[in-house]
Amino acid sequence: MNTALPVHGAGEPRPDSATLCAMFDHAVATAPDTVALRHGGASLTYREEGRAVRALARRLAAVAAPGEVVALLLPNSIEFRVAFFAALKALAAPALLNPLYPGPQLEPLLRDAAPRAVVCAPATRDVVLPLAASLGIPEVVCLGRDTTVAELAAEPEAPLDRRDAAPSDVAALLFSGGTTGVPKAVEHTHERLVVATRCMEYCWPTRPSGEIWLPVAPFTHIYGFLQGVLGPVSARAAVVIPDRFQPEHVVDLMSEHRVTVFGGGPPAIYAGVLAAPNLAGADLSALRVCPAGGAPMPVELMERWRRATGLAVHEGYGMTEIAPISGTNGLTGVRPGSVGKPVPCNEVQVVDLDTGARVLPPGERGEVRVRGPHMMAGYRGRPEETAQAVRDGYVYTGDIGHLDADGFLFITDRKKDVVLVKGFNVFPREVEEAIHTHPEVAAVGVVGVPDERTGGERLVAYVVPRAGGEAPTEAAIAAHVSERLVGYKCPGAVRIVGALPMTGAQKLDRVALRRMAREEPAGGRGAAEAGALKR
Questions:
Q1: Which helix (H) or strand (E) holds 187?
Q2: What is the pLDDT of residues 272-310, one digit of tens each?
Q3: Burial environment of residue 280 by CB neighbours within 10 A (0 to 12, 13 to 18, 19 or more)
Q4: 484/308 Cα distance (integer angstroms)
Q5: What is the second-level CATH architecture of the domain 20-341?
């Protein structure tokens, strides 16, 4: 395996930090007056952020011993980044939890993480307090109510009774369904996340100063975590945080703050911005880097972005257990439909679906497995599931793909999403790509449902028309696909809908879509299911 680490960013030197704390301290020491964070009319310089981090770290160190967990239940915000680095300074292990989860969904995650403290926002306080009481969590800090970032930054300096963080210390617990769908705490150390940050800089080259970043994906998701928290600190960049993902609002912020790096993310984010009515008149001349990740990016959507902005979307591929795995950039080149070449320190192989041991030749589809120096330490407290996901030193991704003769990686689908039609394996991504080429299609999701007639499955396509255009008919979509794909790959049914179900990370929610498709009456879609799709 090639373990040589990639060059930083655009090849411009920056320090090789041993820990995330050292990376943060470097930004505070060398760019103290640079605005670090902007959100909702408030701003914070790196000097102010450093003071706020140290003040909150003192509070957390009083209740959490080194190595114990501090749970963060915060939206994308100034408070999130302050709380994250404060937990690191206190030598606690930050557990990053989605603040949109209701109490019943949070309870097993908090029970699993067993935190000594929870840092939350006023909006989540009423959910957190009863959970903390029932689970015996001794401390809840509500940033915005118990104290504010401004108050923390104004506190007098005082010693923090903690050693410096070590590379082997746990630096984040990110929850992932992995290949089984059951949420597990993915454990990453400082050393591994420093390497992950450097690999991200290789995939999406940024400068070591002067960038203005606008992230969209949740900071609790690995992509949003790298784009909104770690990457900007490494680059000593300013981060403009939207209140929410509202496309017109995002376009206004990019124009107003002269954003240079658009955090982007899954296809739904780019499709939403392209549909914003104020995009055509916006000044995005400062924009230079447009990353994508979290879900496969349709080729047609990438071309629409290029026509609208003059910029290429640089797609990357990764997962909570190891990210990034590969990426497209000026160093490796861009190949339409590909998520790029592996990052230099990674080894990527495609293996057969039956045994997972036979390495397949270029062009042949199978499961993608990968190893590298930033792969997870394991699933916290779950040795059996760790052993299932990591075999022979490789993380088995659960993704279906192939490598071409030049080493470019193409991701087709999730292993569990492959649809068996008339004895053939059909990959929904291929069908979605064909439908996306229709000029009036904004988004599409394809799933398989049981087919009583054949005993296998049939394909159902849900299509969202492009805003402002003439909605295509179901027959027109079917005819469009039949001209591009062999018969067994053509959907048995096409539904025109107002929206697709999405996860909190703005990925297509295939589980919800599959459930809706299977609940349809035999004669077609009922009113209740149609309404659910459009909400």
A1: strand 184-189
A2: 999 999 999 999 999 999 999 877 788 889 999 999 999
A3: exposed
A4: 26
A5: 3-Layer(aba) Sandwich (3.40)
